[in-house]
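Recap for those who missed Tuesday's class. We walked through two folding examples back to back. For each one, the amino acid string is listed first and its predicted structure tokens come directly after. Nothing is annotated here on purpose, so try labeling regions yourself before you check the end of the notes.
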Amino acid sequence: MTIPASFIQELIARADVVEIVGRYVQLKKAGANFMGLCPFHGEKSPSFSVSPTKQFYHCFGCGVHGNAIGFLMEHAGMGFVEAVHDLAGQYGLQVPEDDAPPEERARAAGQRQKQATLTEVLEKAGEAYRKQLRQSPGAIEYLKGRGVSGEVAKQFGIGYAPAGWRSLASVFPEYDDPLLAESGLVIVGEAEEGGEAKRYDRFRDRVMFPIRNVKGECIGFGGRVLGDEKPKYLNSPETPVFSKGRELYGLYEARAAFRDRGYALVTEGYMDVVALAQLGFPNAVATLGTACTPEHVQKLFRFTESVVFSFDGDAAGRRAARKALDGALSYATDVRSIKFLFLPAEHDPDSFIREFGADAFARFVAEATPLSRFLIEAAREGCELSTAEGRAHMASNARPLWSALPEGALKRQLLAEIAALAQLGTQELGELWAPAAARPPAPAPFRASAPVASEMTEEDWASRDQWFDEQSRGRPDKKRFGFKSSFRQPAPPRPPPGGRRLPTSRADVAARLVLSNPAEWEALSHELHALLCDLPGEHGQLFAWLDSQSHEHGTQPWAALREGLRGLDFEALAVRVMTGPDGGPIGDAEGEQAADSARELRNVLDYMLDDLLKAQQSEAIAAVGSDPRALERYKALEARRLELRNRLRPSANSA
């Protein structure tokens, strides 16, 4: 679906960024603006400023900034389309869907209405469960026995479902309402001959844990028995608003703590999350009775770059960790940290902290097994490495795990480690796993308009910066606002020799590389996602749409993306960059071609990021007279640009 730019502008103009941010951050008036503690990094003195006149927020500490839509995306982890719909709903605006057929618009509107209605039903039940808890000494004693305070119980909205079969009938007078069954609150049994189907509450005599989405809406429940009856835990069934494979318990409550603590801790149960919050670890979440899925991992990496999975040290915990490894591999980029924590068999996080203390648990987390080591352990399990057969078996086990990793330094290092264990050379193992004879010759990759990194000299860098300065003096930067980027594209490239038709800008190159290798999108950092989605015009719209597609449907091949593009404003752009020099379509990149594309994409994005940092330096210099932190920001940006240059500049020892 394409959302017209005019509607986005109207929505931003109508939204009050102070009101939106103020729901999550305590703000105080400070002159013309409002100030508060930044929700994106830990700080003790407020440096987070919200401007009611500019409808903009900015943190002078970590540099994060944006408008109301950007805040919902960054703080609540929403995709662009979801954030627009959420904000529009708060102000009573209907998001235009003119490009969709009437039946599709009606279906989408009906689905949104159904989801909103189910959420209202679940919220009403949650309020009833919380009232029941206050009147249930047994449930209160159970929570006290587990060390849960009233404050933490209130924070997580914990309640109690009475033992009666139809207790919700007093909450919902129309107990036969189909919504009660569709929300998972009521079970409809088989109808007896000549009679009506029996209805009864799903949750009875259980402590109730509301499951919330990233917006804080109740989408389901988990219930735990007070004793040892089975099943110990009972979850809501799959509904239009709840999917166990995508949702995490405690995510809404833990989002800010991810940033403060620097990592997310994934545990195995509701009580682990609540107990950890009680004991000083509010950054814990839990899967909902299912193995950790790629969707879970993807959702976590919207909020943090570091995830620690916590499991029991027994065989069942190892099996669960192995499944989590499978789900995490494709997100293990060079800038992310994934670890696996195995507690002693006799402990869960709650008992471990109570016996050894919070500091001991924090050290245990810091010393958790890195993904690279756990991958090797999983591959060599059951293999006798003193024999050729055992080493071959280990290499066979490692191949699918290693292949699932995104391209990067980590993947290359692991290839060397696996090769050493298999007593093979790195090149030998690489050829064994990807024999050259089995690969079709890869076409020469497209190149960006500027000289490639390995060809850049100091004179190139100086000329490039001089060109930028001249352009800046002749055409001042526009202030970065909303989704418009403040940097400009470099001068148009020279026509390539031989008449070969190339994309005309780095944005074109980046679009082609991502569309032909969509898995690379998830491997990019939040900063690079923002850089591409903030591009002006159709390029930014294309990347924002791609981000929403990735969030909603996962990685899709070009053929599927092509169908979804039909009728969108930027369809022509996508088709143009995905058309080869012979006029035929460019397909998905595979094998060595995918690796080449990934390297070229990183190269192009480094150049684009350098352009952006240069523009931000110009803004910092312009603000030196009025902003005491401007010079500090300039120096930090210069350090980042120097780091980029070192990465792009050829090694002095390269041959």
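Example two. Treat it independently of the first, because the proteins are unrelated.
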Amino acid sequence: MRKKPATVRIARWSATHPWSAIGLWVVFVAACLVLGGAAGTNSISDEESGVRESGRAGKIVHSGDFPEKAEENVLITAEDGGKLDPTAGREAAADVIERMKALDEVEAVGDPVPAPDGKALLVPVTMKGDTENADRRVQPLLDASASVQDDHEGLRVDEVGTGSTAKGLSETLGEDFKKAELISLPLTLLILLVVFGAIIAAGVPVVLALSCVGAAIGLSTLASHVLPETSAVSNVILLMGMAVGVDYSLFYLKREREERRAGKSHVDAIEVAAETSGHTVVVSGTTVIVAMAGLYLANEATFASLATGSIIVVAVAVLASLTVLPALLAKLGRWVDKPKVPFLWRLTMRSGESRVWPALLRPALSKPFITLVVSVGALLLLAVPALDMKLKQPGSDDLSRDIAVVRAMDRLTDHFPSKGTVHQVAVRAPADRADDVESALNGLLGRTAKDELFAHDSTPTVKVSEDRTVHTVDVGTPYQPKSDGARQSLDLLREWVPQAMADVPDAESAVGGKVAQGVDFTGHLEERMPWVVGFVLLLTFVTMVMIFRSIAVALSAILLNLLSAAASFGVLVAVFQNTWAEGVLDFHSSGAVVSWLPLFLFVVLFGLSMDYHVFVVSRIREAALAGAPTRTAVREGITRSAGVVTSAAIVMVGVFAIFGTLSMVEFKQLGVGLAAAILLDAVIIRIYVLPALMTALGKWNWWPGKLSGGPDGPAPLPDQAEPGGRPAEEQPQYARFAAEQQYGQQYGQPSAQQAPQQQYQQGGYQQAPQQQYQQGAYQQPYHQGDHQDPYQQGGYQQPGPYRDDASRPGYYQQ
């Protein structure tokens, strides 16, 4: 007897040992969280994340082993923004100095520095300890600044620095994500309630997805000690984990419910779901994982971190679907369909074919060429703005001005430009050349003091390492990080520094800083992007050829995914490079897209789109294998998969769209970009472009192979009848049945209990019906005498008509 697939064996064990499987999963999730919390996060350092010249500058500075101190700046201005009263300003500054010196967290307090415009005083404060946890120790300083403002009427006292800025931003982000969770969870539950019509069935995917996110965050923390982690990883894990975790559970639950409705026992239904939908989950998860692995080819620490987090959460979601989900379903039994929501329950259990999907598909099936031209033209029109895409790294000018610390930063840089955008010059040379290096840098600073591209409110100071081999100096510019002025000052400085160091033998110099990092990162991505895109496209092609044995299907998958990605990029550019949507999404447009987003979005989109593409095209191929003409096969495949695909897409769009409400512009762009991509893919691509293309191609869909099914010429539309009076979808050669009773009842034959043998002889089955149903899969193709065995032709080892499986085209569908 043939050995069952691994997905079935695992599911059967979980279903027959539910408490053991559930207990092991709880232990696994708890262990991941505990071990991850104990190990702590190894974050990416500046020298690890840098590329090109700014990366070299970071490495030079790091080699100097400079002591890192958390710096705070207390800014005193008039409350009305006008001229500062000198006496009141000095009194407030003296109060600040006195209060700060009394704090244990403070190491030193500098003398007040007047602003060149006479409208502000700045008191520099140096905190004790390192910069890593300054945000946890800065609260006493913030309280002292607030007390000074309370005691000095008419003045505004702001505090901006290493710890205060990090604390203000992290608190805002924390509130954002709490709000996102409060919205996303009820929204996801509501969508699943509509899908299942029962509260427990709707809750299982959400609970399972949350457990996957928790386990993945713990595992990614452990992985950060091998590949350092960026701060955005936990957010990406939440986004990806909720999307794929809910989707995989949705596929599994829908199939298990269908099998129970067909008369199978609970364990047998779980086994069939594992062999069909479980296999779909494995194929989909593997595709997403390998696609995300393409980000490693970017050869950059941030992308490697994002790839690692995404791969971990997808792998955990696949594991949960194959192990603990069958156990939960077995333990819940028929309670999974309770408590029923009356109207929604009747809606989900409604029998008969939907009228909506055939109506939507009518243009693609009746006029495929016109539909193809119109739908592709619409997507290309949406993609046009992407031709003007500009890439830049996010900076302080991208932050929401609703955040108090951001407004304080603006006031600080208005009065003291050198505290805002800063270029860092780094030089490494032998210790005996230290005097020459310092002299050259002073000459460089003399040139910057005469140029309006650089800030002149303070004199830059050259820092020297203890071993006198490394020199650094910060040169400010009065322009915002993403402005043309900031870029021009960087280009000029990078031209001047080599000239200044030309007379210093063995000197290694570089210019870094936030502006330089953004410019270099964008250039690096433009250089590496062809490698990543090529890898993903090749993976998609190979995967589709392996699944469908068709080069035509593989090429069409690539073209459709490229079309969907281009359209979503166009939406992204139209929204975020312009100002019309600022009020709607609450952001300040910088005229650019975050530089890391397009590549990450492209990889994620291709991975997730493969999920839908495999599911839909496999249904179409199965109908064609059964003998249906191309148009009928396309109609049947899409209508039978539309419910699951639409439900999964709505869940993903809902989860992704929540990220568009966050304060950080990179998360807004990520959420809007992914939501737009999935929506376009599920609606325009799957309803219009794909069916129109496959209908137009006809028998060439399966090139270079061919199917042994019926003719590829025009087939009757849903409202037209075949000879004999029945619509095409009701003809016996195209029908799908889950049980003997349905076969007899449909065509007026005796019931299965009365004359099963007669029914199967009439239907062309060569094997005893009882044996077939016990095995759970038919061992001979439907109407074997009419055509060649499609399983031998398609390369599938296990035939299985009547299995509702998205990833194995050899299965006949119910």
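Answers for example two:
The CA atoms of residues 295 and 303 lie 6 Å apart.
The first strand starts at residue 71 and ends at 78.
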